[in-house]
Amino acid sequence: MTITLIKDKEASNLFHSLDFQAEWLRLAEASSGFTVLQQPAFATTWYDIYASDYEPVVVTARADGGGLVAMICLAWNKQHRFLTHAGHRDAEYHGWLAFPEVEVEFLSEVFQLVKKQFPVKKWKWSWLAPGLSAEALRKAGTQGTTVQLETRPAPVWDLTNPEKLEKLRKSRSVKPKFNKYKKRGDFRFELITCKDKTAAALKMAALQCDFRQEAIHNARPFASDPRKIEFCNALQSHSGMVHVSALWLDNQLLAFHFGIIDGKRAYLGIKSYDPSESRQSPGLLLLIELAEVLVQQGFELLDLTPGTDAYKERFANDHQLLSRPTICFSPVAALSATAKNTAIILLNKSLPLFKTDLLTMASWKENIKSWVGKLRHLRPSDFARFLFLKKSMFVYAFEQQTKVAALPAARNYSQSFEDLMLYNESQPFPTRRLLLQDALGKFSDGDKLISSTVDGQLSWFAWLTESQQTVKPRLHPQNIDLGENCVSLYDFYCPDGQHFLENLEQALAIIPIEENNRRYLCLESKHKLPIEKAQELGLVSVKKWTCLRVLYFFKKSRQETFQP
Prior knowledge:
Helices cover about 35% and strands about 30% of the residues.
């Protein structure tokens, strides 16, 4: 058996050879496991689009007769100087193609070639593709090379068992959500096969995805990778490779999914949903609709992929054991990897003792990382507020039968979460991530955003809560109880200050007027309205909430009620 490492232009020429691609496909058909991410359509598309950042690398093995018996598609990052697989983060799974009888020998030689050709002491893979032999990978380790494997059960949805889908469809929490959307407009599920329509939907989904990922994981997958949409569009050019679907309400994209398919197996890929619709769980509804279509099309398995997202367990009715390899080329690297894997194992075993889970731990990890950014933006006033906070809120009520007339719009007002992505890290939030986290919580509670932009910059926003008993203003130690059947406008952001009253008048005109609803306006002390202006707007001060907090431990609140 002859094993060869080829890279750069020679590798690129080889990948685009039709004869080689024919051999490549025959090898993929003979290999075990989930192989589509190591096949020509996926790998060559990725290499072409990311050619400026990654140098293609391929290791091939040919039998004595000349036939291709094994290969692995790799890539060398030119700027950051690390070795990865074709697809890098766009490939959920990493792996190789090989006849079973040559796997160990081939992988062992791959390790030696990588060690000689590239300046890496530790080579980290993503999760090993289902069906590939982790034991073959471990056996391939030779003297001076150690293979460390982190293992974890990953959720899958066995579509041949109808019980899970039926249970989800009949769920008391799911059925009303479908009905509410149907009452609101043209609610529909769509399979997207047109590239142009996919491109348009991806642009909307990119903002949805980045919004949620930055809030939860402090990452922006699309903003940090401008070619991701181009790559997804290129993949759709290959017949039978991707599965694209969306959930619409009229022209509003509620949820979106772009996933790879391989035979009778589909895998969860890029997914997003409109965060302003969080209360109605459009992402959950999309997965239910998607599962029904996959069953109709003859798919047997929806791979929910590894991860700590809690919703995956809600859909899973089975699990597969996956491994994540780290190849160590020095004793020090091996010792470090062993210590890390041991710590992960001990942590996973101890989590139930502390009544927590992997999702919570992942959130804590990201929050700890974000403290660096918070400290960078910390001002003396922020530190003082941490030690001692005294905050007053003035609550104004609309006088009976008072209607605020809408003024000629001086700015463009919207109720779009995208406006918050324009926040440029100024008061009241030290970082955009904190703003998005706060917004996710408010959207989940059913609150609505009213915002305004000027010249592509976020200039103003406020939050509207309907038919809720309490509101929870930002940095306010306690909820403000306003009673039942009320509509409240609160948490204003107006950095320049001079347009506050102008924006406030516009916002008041947006508040829905219903006969049985009481309408309130909650303003911080710095925004307290002069008596003359309040009377002009038809408002009367009814309450003042003053809260005191010392070091987050001592809290005291005082309520004053005023007679109209």
